[in-house]
Hints:
The chain is mostly helical. It contains two helices and two strands. The chain has helices at 15-56, 75-92; strands at 59-62, 65-68. The radius of gyration is 45 Å and the shape is rod-shaped. The protein starts with 14 loop residues before the first helix and ends in a 24-residue tail after the last helix.
Amino acid sequence: MAWGSKKAPPPPASAWSKVIPLIILFLVVGALSFVGYQVYTVVNNIADSTNKKLEKKNVTFSKDGMKVGVKEVKTESYVDKTQSVLVKAWNYSTWPAYKSRLWNKQAQEPPGKKSH
């Protein structure tokens, strides 16, 4: 009776054939997590070095946003530098043949008067 006979059942799967996909999954997840961790550390190192460079230029980042510090300048040094620039500009400026009505009055004679 050919149509009444049953085929022999397949042999049971070995334990290795059940574990191999799990091992492959762990290897893929481990590789991806390693790559992710390396990217994370590189980005943090770049952020730290950028933050240090900006702090040298008086720029800081906080939760509220970016704050820019102002370099402190003493009033006395600011006034001295400003006065120095103005005095140099005054000394180096020349206007040939310019005579003011407001100063150098000794050099000018009023109209109508003759010098003795």
